[in-house]
Amino acid sequence: MNLKKCLSILIGSVLLNAGAFAKVIMPGVFSDNMVLQQKTMARVWGKANAGKTVTITSSWNNKTYTTIADADGNWKTKIKTPSYGGPYQVTITDGSDPVVLNNVLIGEVWICSGQSNMEMPVAGWGQVNNYKEEIANANYPEIRLLQVSQATSLTPQTNIKVANNGWMVCSPQTIGEFSSVAYFFAREINKQVKIPIGLISSNWGGTMIEAWSDENTLTNNPVFSAQIKQQQRNLLKQKRH
Q1: In the list 123, 128, 169, 194, which could disulfide-bond 176, CB 3.0-4.6 Å?
Q2: What is the reported pTM?
Q3: How does strand 140-147 pair with strand 197-203?
């Protein structure tokens, strides 16, 4: 077999498998150290090869949930969570290499969003009162932190970019650049009721409230409807090209 033919076979094989996943792919909101909302049917979703059966096993009840990836490889389901506690494991697989999420807690999950007053970190440009002492004392292993990276989009997204590859355990090493308002809020709750707290920090200083509103709401507002419709037309043109 000559070199040209070998290269053709190799390239064809790579193209054939370009869309295949070696294992399920989880969005940035799912990682080690995460917190799931207690006493609910928590949503879980991700990507897999089209048509694959995905199984999710939770260690708190050893129950397995199954769902099937659609034609685009998207899958989603819900898993039942108990009262607060942990740590636990969540295992997700489509029959290939499993994704195992370790050190998972069950508790209360809060989205902390807004402008600079919510974004202001404990240290960094924020430097709250006695910030060095606050950081040194920030040993709260039942508080978990997820920092969403700042990004814009005109359409709803199924994934997010996050800092530090996912959830972090609250410690002097991790709290400095996190939202001070969110941290002090979680610390008080954790001290009073001893429940694990998951904080999802998604904020952007100086942003207008319209940037956080959904498209349908803005479309029905006469002040913004013309702009939204023009954006919709522009997006349609981009898809056609």
Answers
A1: 123
A2: 0.84
A3: parallel
